[in-house]
Design brief:
The protein is α/β, with parallel strands linked by helices and 222 residues long. Helices cover 27% and strands 27% of the residues. A five-stranded mixed β-barrel has the order 4-10-9-5-11. Strands 6-7 form a two-stranded antiparallel ribbon.
């Protein structure tokens, strides 16, 4: 079964079309397709994904949502597929500089599912439709970036193309449980000092819906 997961109802609103969906409850959408709203952030995402997979181990996960882009040449509303991700703010502040969990020696950057501190997506053959979209490097944060100093530190350390608040937890959970997955994001804003007037959430949601339908159709044809 294909399980479409998102942090919020808003991100899947065109897809659910008024269905009464509660956080953490798997809701059938159509035959062999269901939806799960996990809540915002890495912890609820990992929890509800793990709970779902414990009860239904044969799931295929399509995680969708909106994201901020670091690259200014990425158009608002663009659809991207996350090829690698990491927990970018797990660590410690050291007098204004950041030390990652790997810098601190409290985690091994090459212990599964990490490779040099990154987790990688390797289901391109299963999700052939993903090849039509740009593959990106993502970072996952507990808070969206909105100040110049913090943004510059993240760029210098990770060279990210997008940031989210959930993708790394999807990678971590699905890689640990050997479950096929894909993380799709629609760009709602650029990562810059916070300026919501430059966001285009409606466009991002409309395009996210179209891309999600493509993934559903592709799955149904397999």
């Amino acid at each position: 079964m294909l399980l479409i997961t998102a942090a919020t109802k808003y991100e899947v609103e065109p897809l659910i079309k008024g269905l009464n969906i509660e956080q953490g409850i798997i809701t059938p959408l159509m035959p062999d397709i269901s939806v799960l709203i996990t809540g915002v952030g890495a912890v609820p995402t990992a929890f509800y994904l793990t709970k779902a997979l414990a009860n239904m181990p044969n799931l295929t996960i399509v995680n969708i949502g909106v994201a901020g882009a670091y690259a200014k040449d990425v158009e608002l509303g663009s659809i991207v597929v996350v090829k690698r991700d990491t927990f970018a703010d797990y660590g410690a502040d050291d007098k204004g500089s950041f030390l990652s969990q790997f810098d601190l020696g409290i985690a091994n950057p090459n212990a599964f599912p990490f490779q040099n501190g990154w987790m990688h997506w390797e289901h391109q053959t299963l999700f052939g439709v993903a090849n039509k979209y740009q593959g990106v490097t993502g970072i996952t944060l507990a808070k969206a970036s909105g100040s110049e100093g913090e943004i510059n530190q993240l760029i210098n350390r990770y060279s990210p193309q997008i940031e989210t608040m959930e993708c790394a937890s999807v990678f971590y959970t699905c890689l640990q449980l050997n479950v096929p997955f894909v993380c799709i994001r629609s760009i709602s804003n650029w990562v810059e000092p916070r300026n919501k007037e430059r966001w285009n959430m409606p466009l991002a949601i409309v395009n996210l819906y179209s891309a999600t339908v493509e993934f559903i159709d592709s799955h149904s044809q397999n």
